[in-house]
Structure formats: C-alpha cells, structure tokens
Specification:
The chain is mainly beta. The chain has one helix spanning 2-19, and strands at 38-54, 57-66, 68-74, 79-84, 93-99, 103-107, 116-117, 123-129, 135-144. The strands form two sheets. A five-stranded mixed beta sheet has the order 3-4-9-8-6, with no helix packed on it.
Length: 145
C-alpha cells in the first residue's frame, strides 16, 4: 500500500514541476537594433583534391583554397567589391559572406552562400536580415583582375 502512495506522490510531484515551468523572461530579439551589415567582406573559395598530411601520413582529401585577392565593403552604399585573379574559374566556387546579421537570403536567383555554384555572372544581390526583423539588401560584385 505504501508503494502505491509513493507512486501517486511521484506522479503528482512531476506533474506540478512540469506545469510550473514557464519562461520567466521573453527574449526581445529587437533589443539589439538593426545589424544587417556585411562586416569583413565576401570571399570566394575553390575546393581542390590534394594530398593532406596527417600525423598518420598522407591521405587524399579535399581542401578549401581562397581565390579572393581583395574584398572591399562600402557600408554607405551596401556594396561589396571582391577581386579575383584573371583565369579564375567562377563556375565552381563557394561564396562566404561575413556578416553580423541573423540570416542571409539570396535574391533574384543568386547562388546560396556556402555551396559550390556558378558565380560567373559577377554581380549578385543578397538580403541580410537582422534579429529585429529589419533587413538590408547588399550588392556583391566580382571583379576579375
């Protein structure tokens, strides 16, 4: 009989604990203001298959190699100019956008950042979303030098 009371007491206790757990404070993501800037730029990378030296010896693997010479951010006009060397194959590169926003949204068919894709069109638009719900549209231009 005592074990039944213990079982009922345990169920009631757990029920009270679970039902009393509600958030004490709701997070106001807008409290930090609008942060939808590209910070240090946009960089393009190629993935190449090469020998990689590990402590156990050499293995064949893929590594990321930057093909970006320079990346200039114009915060007043929301543009980034990224330069690459002549002869760079822009049909198989990945783009990394360094930003302080909450989310990056490709616009008008722009390739998704972080994935290998075709950047040979050389000009793309991306929307950087801030945590407070606002956003800024940025133009990224790739210049071959």
């Amino acid at each position: 009989m005592k074990s039944i009371y213990k079982y009922i007491f345990a169920i009631i206790s757990i029920g009270l604990m679970v039902s009393s757990c509600e958030p004490r404070i709701k997070m106001d993501e807008g409290q930090w203001g609008t942060h939808a800037e590209i910070t240090s730029g946009v960089f393009l990378y190629q993935w190449i298959v090469d020998d990689i030296v590990l402590s156990e010896g050499e293995v064949e693997g893929a590594k990321r190699v930057s093909v970006t010479d320079d990346s200039i951010v114009d915060e007043d006009n929301f543009t980034v100019t990224t330069t690459v060397e002549t002869g760079t194959d822009l049909t198989k590169v990945a783009c990394y956008i360094y930003h302080n926003g909450n989310r990056v949204e490709p616009l008008n068919g722009a390739p998704k950042p972080g994935k290998v894709d075709d950047y040979s069109a050389k000009e793309f638009k991306y929307r950087i979303h801030s945590a407070d719900g606002k956003y800024k549209d940025w133009t990224i231009e790739i210049v071959v030098q």
